[in-house]
């Protein structure tokens, strides 16, 4: 049975292939879009399509045809169908090269690929998302520090290369990619919801509307826990060890008969502690808030700058060791900080440590 849709259907300029043996129609709004592709390609990638395409020959009068090819009407949005077909014909699709908007832009593709069991596309999306949100400590730190070095502010726009965390959380949660959640939630916690209402930073704000109530609760709880972690890190500069310090012997108070508390190392560490305290903001409720609680970046900064304090060698080594220990502990605690261990699928995949 020949189908005449020439009056209200649009042939796709590149996906209506003359050599194709199957016509696919899908609707977007009030417009029907037509694609002509190769049934073998669909069947090879999708067991669902393979079953659907077990059709009688086109000469059979009971089969709907268009332009001499059998027609399959898909209930999916034409935009998603188009992207799916484009990726099947062009594996290195531009959508996989996107940075900040990748998770948002690929959500529809992941949905339709999952529906039709096209595992190759699902795997490609998962791999790309994991590249953006590392699940090993070393890669996590490296990517965050690269982001900080590239950031020059929302006006200049360099920071737009940083992936957007809320859409990554949505994609990872809905399609069972739990490895990326610690990094994505951590980045989300470095943002304030007030950014939604600031015209200057709105382009860089997370897509808060994509998050469910329980996910926003994880954000608030995690942000509070990170603030507490930040406060505990201040104590690194207070837990001073006189027994190995080489400068404490330079400050012996002969009148008092004891060593002074104002050794060069102690003074340097106290100055660093004060600098950290300046980033804490008391609020009316008695809690302490941080506008950007990027504890990991702060710890890495202390570790990298430890020589600038001009400490004696034992104190410098001690400070570096404490920073590394705190970084390790924070990384290992991220699933607990954001209550991820309670998710039904999270425990299925072990996280890398190195």
UniProtKB/TrEMBL annotation:
SMART domains found in the cross-reference section = BTB (SM00225)
Which organism is this entry from? Answer: Phanerochaete sordida
Stretches assigned to the BTB domain: 20-90
Q: Please indicate which superkingdom the organism of origin belongs to.
A: Eukaryota
Cross-referenced PROSITE patterns, in alphabetical order? Answer: BTB
- Protein name per the record: BTB domain-containing protein
Coiled-coil stretches are none
Q: Which InterPro entries match?
A: BTB/POZ_dom (IPR000210), SKP1/BTB/POZ_sf (IPR011333)
């Amino acid at each position: 049975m020949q189908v005449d849709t020439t009056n209200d259907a649009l042939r796709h300029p590149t996906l209506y292939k003359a050599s194709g043996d199957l016509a696919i129609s899908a609707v977007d709004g009030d417009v029907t879009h037509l694609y002509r592709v190769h049934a073998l390609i669909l069947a090879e990638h999708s067991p669902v399509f393979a079953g659907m395409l077990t059709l009688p020959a086109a000469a059979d009068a009971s089969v709907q045809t268009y332009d001499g090819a059998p027609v399959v009407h898909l209930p999916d949005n034409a935009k998603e169908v188009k992207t799916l077909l484009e990726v099947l014909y062009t594996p290195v699709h531009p959508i996989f090269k996107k940075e900040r908007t990748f998770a948002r832009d690929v959500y529809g593709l992941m949905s339709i690929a999952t529906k039709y069991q096209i595992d190759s596309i699902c795997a490609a999306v998962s791999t790309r998302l994991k590249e953006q949100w590392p699940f090993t400590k070393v890669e996590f730190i490296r990517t965050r520090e690269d982001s900080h070095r590239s950031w020059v502010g929302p006006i200049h726009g360099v920071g737009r290369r940083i992936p957007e965390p809320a859409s990554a959380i949505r994609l990872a949660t809905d399609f069972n990619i739990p490895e990326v959640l610690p990094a994505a939630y951590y980045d989300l916690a470095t943002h304030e919801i007030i950014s939604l209402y600031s015209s200057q930073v709105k382009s860089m704000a997370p897509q808060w509307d994509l998050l469910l109530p329980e996910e926003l609760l994880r954000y608030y709880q995690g942000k509070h826990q990170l603030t507490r972690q930040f406060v505990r890190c201040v104590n690194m500069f207070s837990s001073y060890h006189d027994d190995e310090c080489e400068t404490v012997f330079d400050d012996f108070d002969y009148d008092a008969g004891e060593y002074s508390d104002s050794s060069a190392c102690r003074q340097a560490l106290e100055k660093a502690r004060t600098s950290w305290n300046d980033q804490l903001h008391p609020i009316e409720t008695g809690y302490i808030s941080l506008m950007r609680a990027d504890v990991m970046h702060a710890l890495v900064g202390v570790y990298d700058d430890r020589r600038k304090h001009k400490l004696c060698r034992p104190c410098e080594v001690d400070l570096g060791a404490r920073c590394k220990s705190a970084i390790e502990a924070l990384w290992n605690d991220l699933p607990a900080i954001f209550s991820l261990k309670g998710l039904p699928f999270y425990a299925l995949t072990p996280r890398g440590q190195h």
